[in-house]
């Protein structure tokens, strides 16, 4: 049984607490949060104890650390937990600052403990099946990847101001997913973005609508489309064209019932947001982490993967500002 120390008891931390507690090979031992009421409430719910973050990390009864705190603390906690010899699962991104993320990677490079970054979309059953089909060469050589990710509604402006921007906060999931599907990093990244949904987002220095085009060494292309608002719900689709066919992973709907009449055909909307859409992916992600520890195997999403996705977000940000393509080697 892996006894887990959870850092951060907010929305994502609470989701992870449920996943930890429901797994047959893990239990929630200790929690920490700057909001003591939140920490106490979650600890009471799962029979855990409340400690400071430092005490959770140093607790000899804690076998692994899950980091779900604010992004600006991730690198610090990764280093502290790594130096304490604890296996780590850290929510994305590694950091808001690429230089700091690279330094974190350098600082823990000599550690032997597993460090996994929480890019849960790799573990979505549909995306995983799409990847498996590609590896089985079912559509031949990969040529054109399209990832669509539209949120149902924009976040509060207070969140936008501290999020690091759409590319680091939202599209970073899609950068990692593209690396997972393509099996490599692109060589150039071009981005265009505007604030079309809420002018306050633009006033805060961010965009809410963006398209990124990525070119690979052999000429294949990937396109990522993001919007902070889709009136019909949480739109999450992946499509890849190969030399011998097409693979698509469509939205998961609120209901499978389809009504067909002379008026038309009506189906349900996509599941509302990421908690509903990706719950199975979060559970599969945690299961993969636990198995890596128990089987003494490498984690499936590494700290290097996290730094690579952040570098792509940095390249996209620079591309938008400068109005030109950015070579990934310039930032990574």
Q: Which features characterize this protein?
A:
332 residues; alpha/beta; seven-stranded mixed beta sheet; 23% strand
Characterization of the model:
The structure is a single chain. With 332 residues, the chain is of the alpha/beta class. It folds into two domains: 2-113, NAD(P)-binding Rossmann-like Domain (Rossmann fold), CATH 3.40.50; 123-280 and 309-331, 2-Layer Sandwich (Dihydrodipicolinate Reductase, domain 2), CATH 3.30.360. It is 39% helix and 23% strand. The protein is built from 14 helices and 15 strands. Strands 12-11-7-10-9-8-15 form a seven-stranded mixed beta sheet. Strands 3-2-1-4-5-6 form a six-stranded parallel beta sheet, sandwiched between helices. β1 (2-7), α1 (11-22) and β2 form a beta-alpha-beta unit. α4 (74-83) packs parallel to α5 and α5 (98-107) packs antiparallel against α13 (303-322). It is globular and about 60 Å long. The protein starts with a strand and ends with a helix. The model has no long low-confidence stretch (mean pLDDT 97).
Please provide a brief summary of the model.
The protein is an alpha/beta fold and 332 residues long. It has two domains: 112 residues, Rossmann fold; 181 residues, Dihydrodipicolinate Reductase, domain 2 (2-Layer Sandwich). The protein contains 14 helices and 15 strands.
Arithmetic mean pLDDT? 97
First-to-last CA distance: 38 Å
At the fold tier of CATH, the topology name of the largest domain is: Dihydrodipicolinate Reductase, domain 2
Helical run tally: 14
What is the name of the CATH architecture of the largest domain? 2-Layer Sandwich
Which stretches of 5+ consecutive residues score pLDDT under 50?
Answer: none
Write the CATH homologous superfamily of the largest domain.
Dihydrodipicolinate Reductase, domain 2
Helix content: 25-40%
Query: What is the count of β-strands?
Result: 15
């Amino acid at each position: 049984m892996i006894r887990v120390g959870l850092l951060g008891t907010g929305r994502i931390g609470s989701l992870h607490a449920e996943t930890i507690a429901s797994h047959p090979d893990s239990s929630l031992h200790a929690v920490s949060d700057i909001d003591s009421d939140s920490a106490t409430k979650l600890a009471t719910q799962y029979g855990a104890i409340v400690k400071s973050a430092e005490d959770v990390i140093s607790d000899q009864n804690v076998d692994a650390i899950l980091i779900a705190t604010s992004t600006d603390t991730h690198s610090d906690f990764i280093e502290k937990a790594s130096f304490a010899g604890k296996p780590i699962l850290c929510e994305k991104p590694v950091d808001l600052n690429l230089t700091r993320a690279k330094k974190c990677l350098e600082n823990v490079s000599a550690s032997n403990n597993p460090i996994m970054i929480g890019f849960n979309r790799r573990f979505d059953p549909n995306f995983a099946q799409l990847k498996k089909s590609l590896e089985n060469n079912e559509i031949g050589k990969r040529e054109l990847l399209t990832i669509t990710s539209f949120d149902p509604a924009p976040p509060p402006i207070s969140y936008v101001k501290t999020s690091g921007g759409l590319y680091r906060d939202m599209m970073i999931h899609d950068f990692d997913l593209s690396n997972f599907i393509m099996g490599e990093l692109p060589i150039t990244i071009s981005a265009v973005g505007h604030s079309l949904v809420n002018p306050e987002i633009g006033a805060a220095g961010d965009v809410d609508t963006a398209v990124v085009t990525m070119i690979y060494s052999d000429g294949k292309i990937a396109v990522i489309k993001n919007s902070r608002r889709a009136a019909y719900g949480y739109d999450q689709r992946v499509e890849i064209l190969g030399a011998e066919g097409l693979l698509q992973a469509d939205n998961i709907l609120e209901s499978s019932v389809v009504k067909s009449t002379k008026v038309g055909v009506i189906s349900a909307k996509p599941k509302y947001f990421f908690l509903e859409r990706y719950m199975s992916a979060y559970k599969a992600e945690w299961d993969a982490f636990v198995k890596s520890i128990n089987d003494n195997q490498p984690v499936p999403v590494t700290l290097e993967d996290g730094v690579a996705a952040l570098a792509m977000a940095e390249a996209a940000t620079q591309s938008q500002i400068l109005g030109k393509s950015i070579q990934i080697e310039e930032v990574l």
